[in-house]
From TrEMBL, chain A:
Gene3D superfamilies: P-loop containing nucleotide triphosphate hydrolases. GO terms for molecular function: ATP binding. The keyword Transport applies. This is ATP-binding cassette domain-containing protein.
Automatic annotation (TrEMBL), chain B:
It is found in: Cell membrane; Membrane. This is ABC transporter permease subunit. It comes from Herbiconiux daphne. Keywords: Membrane, Transmembrane, Transmembrane helix, Transport. It is a multi-pass membrane protein. Its main location: membrane. The chain crosses the membrane at residues 31-53, 65-87, 93-112, 154-177, 189-209. Residues 27-206 form the ABC transmembrane type-1 domain. Belongs to the binding-protein-dependent transport system permease family. Signal peptide: none annotated.
Length: 270, 245
């Protein structure tokens, strides 16, 4: 469990990125922080592994105040996946995946053997192990980034807009992979995105943020869709637009779900 | 016989290359100056450049310092130092160290600066200590530009080392100064050919070294001249390798 307790972050230039933020992130679930740019979502994420320290307030991981922990040690037990993968260009795929275990003192041979298994886990062919990151496609690099994030078997996985730079088809694949991995491995995933559809797809808990890290609404996707807390949320999730207002039409004896404009979106199953 | 042939004949005359006054000894002196001054300059400039490149602090100072040092006229510095330190090897050596510092300093910090910030951020985020970020990420990725700087220093010093003879510091300049004093043009030309050949040989060797130290997975580009007050991401070193390269 990760707990934010009245966390405020003011940057040296005076910008208040996050103000009085409270949130409980449940274990073994995916929590998505979603909002437009400048809402402080990445700042919140980076405060969990102390890439950024809060100006005031506390962040607790399983009841332990992170400010009492050594940042380097903390980061090594939290997986981190970033946009554009952030792989080391001068190291082979396999060594990139093995980075954290090696830093933790695992023998290189063992770390590499484990890294090969992780390539399987994230759906990459083992033949890519000896390639360099630049020789991989964007989607493949992102998978390597996920494998690296999982390498030290962390309980927590932080994902900072990891699929922002890949094309829609690959993105959909990676999203499904993320769901599968989270369910299979039972990690606590904290995911940052500006895409509300991605948030609803991945999140057990979705946190909609407004400027300054103010929470507009927290809930399951269904709760948020059913009862948007205010106009901002309604507009952000698109409830005020046609695509979230679905109705059923009978077509040839089947119940077809269509949106407000009448565009079919699916078939109702009995 | 024309002058070039006379110059070459001068080089191959045993009377000129053998013995303690021969050009082989002078060439070794030239090389000692070159590598000695570059090594001393590296010991000073590399840690300093790394510090500037890693922290981003003192960059303006480093840029204007290396720019200013480059503008110094070598002969003037040599004479000035010669007046203070007397004749012999010390004044030339110190002069050459001063000449060698700017390119190495620029290569060291530009090497670090050329690295994608996201790569460094990611290295930190997965749990590397500052020291590990420097040794495992910044030094290997910055190496091509540093070697470029060292190469540039060596070339500058190997040519300038000829001036050492001006304050009785030995090296190949001995022949050139002597030749001009006695109007012995074959000797002047022979010695000049030697200096040129030496510079070309070094250039060739270091071009090769520079290629070899580029980390696999990245393709290096040449360091463009680092000028004072340039915008920050001037040097682009780690350009993505294309597939199949």
């Amino acid at each position: 469990m990760i707990e934010f307790r009245s966390v405020t972050k003011q940057f040296p230039d005076g910008t208040v990125a996050v103000e009085n933020f409270d949130l409980v992130i449940p274990p073994r679930k995916t929590t998505v922080l979603v909002g437009s740019s400048g809402c402080g979502k990445t700042t919140l994420l980076r405060m969990i592994n102390r890439m950024i320290d809060p100006t005031s307030g506390a962040i607790l991981i399983d009841g332990e105040d992170t400010s009492s922990l050594e940042p380097v040690k903390l980061r090594r037990r939290i997986g981190y996946v970033m946009q554009n993968s952030g792989l080391l260009p001068h190291r082979k795929v396999i060594d990139n995946v093995a980075t954290v275990p090696v830093l933790n003192g695992v023998a290189k041979r063992d770390a590499r053997a484990h890294a090969l298994e992780l390539l399987d886990t994230v759906g990459l062919d083992r033949s890519l192990a000896d390639k360099y990151p630049r020789q991989l496609s964007g989607g493949q690099q992102q998978r390597v980034g996920v494998a690296r994030g999982l390498a030290a078997d962390p309980n927590i996985l932080l994902m900072d807009e990891p699929f922002g730079a890949v094309d829609p088809i690959v993105r959909a694949e990676l999203q499904q992979e993320t769901i599968r991995l989270q369910e299979g491995l039972g990690k606590t995933v904290v995911f940052v995105t500006h895409d509300i559809d991605e948030a609803f797809l991945l999140g057990h808990q979705v946190v909609i943020l407004q400027k300054g890290g103010h929470i507009a609404q927290v809930g399951t996707p269904a709760e948020i869709l059913a009862e948007p807390a205010d106009d901002f949320v309604a507009s952000f999730v698109g409830a005020d637009k046609g695509k979230r207002k679905l109705r059923i039409e009978k077509v040839g004896g089947r119940d077809i779900v269509v949106d407000e404009a009448g565009t079919p979106t699916g078939v109702l199953q009995s | 016989m024309n002058l070039v042939a006379e110059g070459i004949a001068w080089i191959f005359d045993p009377a000129n290359y053998a013995g303690p006054q021969g050009w082989i000894v002078r060439l070794v002196e030239q090389l000692l100056y070159t590598f000695g001054a570059t090594a001393i300059a590296a010991v000073i400039a590399v840690p300093l450049g790394y510090l500037v490149g890693h922290t981003g602090r003192g960059r303006d100072l480093a840029v204007s310092l290396s720019g200013g040092f480059r503008a110094l006229p070598s002969l003037g510095v040599l004479i000035l130092l010669g007046l203070g330190l007397g004749i012999g090897f010390r004044a030339p050596l110190l002069t050459f160290v001063i000449i060698a510092i700017p390119p190495i300093l620029a290569g060291a910090y530009a090497g670090f600066e050329s690295i994608d910030r996201k790569t460094i951020d990611a290295a930190r985020a997965v749990g590397m200590t500052e020291w590990q970020v420097i040794t495992q990420v910044e030094i290997p990725l910055g190496l091509p530009l540093l070697i470029g700087g060292v190469r540039s220093s060596l070339l500058q010093v190997v040519a300038t080392a000829t001036l050492a003879a001006y304050v009785s510091g030995g090296a190949l300049g001995v022949f050139i100064f002597e030749a001009f004093a006695t109007s012995n043009y074959p000797e002047a030309l022979g010695a000049s050919i030697l200096v040129t050949a030496l510079a070309l040989a070094l250039e060739g060797i270091f071009a090769l070294v520079q290629k070899l130290v580029v980390p696999r997975g990245v393709v290096a580009k040449e360091l463009k001249e680092v000028r004072p007050r340039s915008s920050r991401p001037l040097a682009v070193a780690g350009v993505p390798a294309q597939e199949g390269k």
